[in-house]
Specification:
Blueprint (H helix, E strand, L loop, with lengths): L5 H7 L1 H9 L2 H14 L7 E4 L5 H8 L4 E5 L2 H9 L6 E3 L12 E7 L8 H10 L1 E12 L1 H4 L1 E3 L8 E3 L6 E8 L5 E8 L2 H10 L2 E7 L5 H6 L12 E8 L2
Parallel strand pairs: 1-2, 1-4, 2-3, 4-5
Antiparallel strand pairs: 5-11, 6-7, 8-9, 10-11
Helix pairs in contact: 6-8
Amino acid sequence: MGPDRARDHWEQQSDAWIALTRTDPDYELLNKPSFLEIVPPPGRLTLDVGCGEGRLARELVTLGHRVVGIDGSATLARAARASTPSIPVGLADASRLPVASGAADLVVCFMLLMDVEDLDKTIAELARVLTPRGVLCAAIMHPIFSSGLFIDGDPHQTFYMGEYARSMRHVLDIERNNGDRIIFRIEHRPLELYSRALEAAGLALTTVREPVPGAETVANRPEFAKFRRVPEFLHFRAERLA
């Protein structure tokens, strides 16, 4: 089963993750473009919590954001600092941020929340570091997608819906086309749990997106056609009320 804590898991998988980010069409063609559409213009400070090796932080810097990253993996934090442009990164759990209350007007949390052990505590911490009316932008694996699977080899791309309403942990050992392997550790949770955590933290949900690939993307990458039927990712934006 591997490490029990998410930060230990991703430290163990850090080299495999860095290798994946070099060639990741899901990120480049689907996840990143849709997510950036919900990110507000640059403000005083943008925190990228769960920044990994810094690929999204670098995009935000090019858009004019002053970005500070936070990650639990020392290897990934070093990779972000060593990148071009270099990203200043703190080493910490998402549920215990070494950041003053109200310091950031934007917190970006990209593909992290489905990894954390304590969702309520983590979202409360993300809200704490936001200014009043500050914005949280988050991306997760879509809970519909993490509750089931496409039937392997089925030409009709049938999707089997599993136990959506029950929280559960998935450990997925993936072999990529180039032979590299990476293990994902995903905490499946129904949407209501995310909504309740936001409410408890004083965050109002303002935007929800379920990105699907366009016709041109599917023409170039036919394997993406199934994501026109069942979304792989969910993006949302929430605002701190006070």
